[in-house]
Amino acid sequence: MTSRPAPRDRRLLTALRLAAQGIAHPTLESPVEVVRSMLAMQAQDYLGTLWSVGLRTRAATEADVEATHASGTIVRSWPQRGTLHLVAAEDLGWMLSLTGERMLRSAAARNRELGLDADIFARAAAIARERLAGAGRADRAELLAAFAAGGIAVEGQRGSHLLGNLAFTGLVVLCGRTEYALLDEHVPEPRRLDPDAAAEELALRYFTAHGPATLRDLAWWSGLPLTFVRDATARVRDRLDAIELGGVEYLMRPGLEPDGDGVHALPGFDEYLLGYGDRSAALAPEHADTIVPGGNGMFLPTIVARGEVVGTWKRTRTTRVVRVTTGPFAPLSGVAERGFASAMRRYGRFLGSPVEIG
């Protein structure tokens, strides 16, 4: 188990990451710029994902982010680790070219347990192509109903694994909250990269957006072998800066300056935590169970002060107002309380709804 960086090192790492990820002082205007800059953003919590994008823009609203998704310039799919992410539409294809086969192999044993084989997947693909052809759209329930009508059982986890296979192979993509489209119709002009160029693009853009980070962070984030990411990173190493802290080398974009004094209200699953295999710079190990209760894989929204996760927050939305309650690990200082209140005012502008704390 990796030991937690020393306090001074943690402070530097988090301040640099807040700057690199565009959290500390956002400069980008549009949602698509944010998603493209981050390469991929974990996205299984749909409403949280919208805020992850919005908080990295200067002033985009929730409606702006959803409109960008609907326009087709950003999409949701499973480009790595078998986990839902938001990516710029043109990037999904080349990312799947690196990761798709590995995700299919990882799912193979479970597919066999569920009685899913190559013939069933081929039949499901044919049904999906027919249902979605001509720029068609269908939500999850409609696609599963089409499979069932075609004689393919979708009970239990079979439906999820059928859709996952179609996504891993690059046939379908999420073009809305639950709506699917054919990837080759929804993204008619994808970027096409050869294997070496794709690997280099992955490494360069990950460290540019997430650095300072380690090779092991990238291997975890991408789900690719350490040897693979080491080789890819070596080929772009001259375009990255490095710092060594506690005997560990971290890579990042050149000229990055730390910027980590503020208070931020981050959604669950935000890349500030989920972007790294080792999250201990921002999150003390003794609080990990609070952020992921019971180790169930569900990350709660976090309060971040001076780079450190200092508590959680939860929203309840009504027709009139959004009510937010907090769960700090220890009483917040007056400065932190005022900073969080400021973050909530910004969140209210994003939602287009007043926010009440308490």
TrEMBL record:
Name by which UniProt lists this protein: Winged helix DNA-binding domain-containing protein
Superkingdom classification of source: Bacteria
InterPro entries: AlkZ-like
